Amino acid sequence: MTELIKTEIITVNPEAIDQTALARAATVLRRGGLVAFPTETVYGLGAVIYNRESVKKIFTVKGRPGDNPLIVHIYQWEQLMELAREVPETARILAQRFWPGPLTLVLPKKEAIPVEVSAGLPTVAVRLPAHPVAQELLRQTGQPVAAPSANTSGRPSPTRSSHVIADLDGKIELIIDAGPTGVGVESTVLDLTGPKLRILRPGGVTREMLEAVFGPELVEAPPQINCERPLAPGMKYRHYAPRAPLRLLTGDPELVRRFLLEGAAAARAQGKKIGIIAYDEDQDPAFAVTGVTFFSLGRRANPTEGAARLFHLLRLCDQAGVDKIYAVAPPRQGVGEAVFNRLYKAAGGKVEEIK
């Protein structure tokens, strides 16, 4: 059991960054402490990669399995040469097009990368975040920082500082509060070690965006099944899960709506509370009559809304104390693929087609 410590919380305005506050946070990192900080995707839990004891603490406070590799965050392109043994021209093209931004590149690692960071793999995952607070913190730290999501392992990723506080208060040295994140789902993880660009985890840089640069024949679709040894975060273990069991539903919208109404009525008869995560178009006045709590992903035609809201909605389900959650599968185009991936993981790798 992790011994409780005093967690400092500082507020930083992304549009008028407090250099002194971030200098203090950078000092904590350099001294071996853990700092939760915002990126454009989710809040990350940072440790300097060359301090192996600090990196080990990430796994301890999160309850993270040791074979789940970490993503290394940098603030400038030149740092990639410090981490990767080989940097192909493909990486340069991707960096020019999508960095800073929600894209992680998996490359052959240099020997100096601690085994705890790479989980024993011959590769290292690296990204250059776009959030100004993250960039300035990394610049002031002056060293690459490993930073998985700042939450308890398996729980919904944090897109607000309140999510970090709920999971990690008393376990880490410092939390930087800079408001809600923008993208809302973690970065796309792209493996560059093979002949094709292999998407290991879908995210804010979509398959369509990658295909527009390299062509569809050079981009492999993301896997949806678990693997024996994860090559990137989110590939093996149940992730993003609220406390109540979640069922992911797909099928004709009208059939899904009827299924939801019937399920809600049956649950109410049993004295159970139901939460529904779906789009505005899926809302039905009868839900209120059956005691359903409806959590909106926004408009189906704008999947970026759903991505930004998803993890917060999963935590709101916890706060509402629902006994069961039904989630309507998003369209699997653009960032909707990432939203589907997170819901699929939250549902334990299952999706139910309603016929």
List the helices and strands and how they pair.
Elements: E1 8-11, H1 19-30, E2 35-38, E3 43-48, H2 52-62, E4 71-73, H3 79-83, H4 89-98, E5 103-108, H5 115-118, E6 123-127, H6 132-141, E7 145-146, H7 161-168, E8 174-177, E9 188-191, E10 197-201, H8 207-214, E11 219-220, E12 246-251, H9 253-269, E13 274-278, H10 285-289, E14 293-296, H11 303-320, E15 324-328, H12 336-346, E16 352-354
Parallel strand pairs: 1-8, 2-8, 4-6, 5-9, 10-11, 12-15, 12-16, 13-14, 13-15
Antiparallel strand pairs: 2-3, 3-7, 4-7, 5-6, 9-10
Helix pairs in contact: 1-6
Verbal overview:
With 355 residues, the chain is α/β, with parallel strands linked by helices. 34% of the residues lie in helices and 19% in strands. The protein contains twelve helices and 16 strands. It has helices at residues 19-30, 52-62, 79-83, 89-98, 115-118, 132-141, 161-168, 207-214, 253-269, 285-289, 303-320, 336-346, and strands spanning 8-11, 35-38, 43-48, 71-73, 103-108, 123-127, 145-146, 174-177, 188-191, 197-201, 219-220, 246-251, 274-278, 293-296, 324-328, 352-354. The strands form two sheets. It has an eleven-stranded mixed sheet, sandwiched between helices. Helix 10 links the parallel strand 13 and strand 14.
